Amino acid sequence: MSIKNINSEKENIKNYQNTCSEFIKDLSLDYLNWVYRYNLNQEETKMRKEKINEIVIKSSRIIYQFGDTIKKIDIIMNDGITKMAEYTAGYPFKFCILVNNMSGYTYNPIGTIRLNIKAIPSSGKGVRIGSYDSNNLILLNSSSPVKYSVNKSSLDSADILDDYIIIDAKNCLKNDVISATVIVEEVKENTVFEKRGFSTLVLVIQK
Prior knowledge:
By secondary structure, this protein is α+β, with helices and mostly antiparallel strands.
């Protein structure tokens, strides 16, 4: 590839970084407006607004630091958009996902990534991992090929959910990005009362 083509590609990446960073910022205004419309108490409104603004800052920073391909930028941007939607809706039950004791934005060496799914339902209900859609148990986007496995018992209702989804990232490269969205359902007598998603962005680092 010629120097001219290399410089042109770098310029295209830079322009796309700017476009996607601005898009996240602009879209955040819509999510903030939805928070206002919910007429929540002051503390809950403040928390959701802070989370949305935090996502804009973090996602944009990661786009500029590690979004060196169009695919990576798209993954980071879409992960940020999904996160904003999740915090706009809020969580009616306790639910988080940890990777190496970090939540939301994480890093992990090439190899095995362990998503620790933690959820506690409201009194009298159970929790379980639900399907993202009719074709996918989880939404998984990666800049390199990855696979995942899940404990089948996590799909059954339990009083407390504390289990793992394992992502095989051995074919990843340094600075690859992976976005995983997991759905957890709050159920009673096999009826779903609430369901929420939690998205995790993983930066793959060298061992």
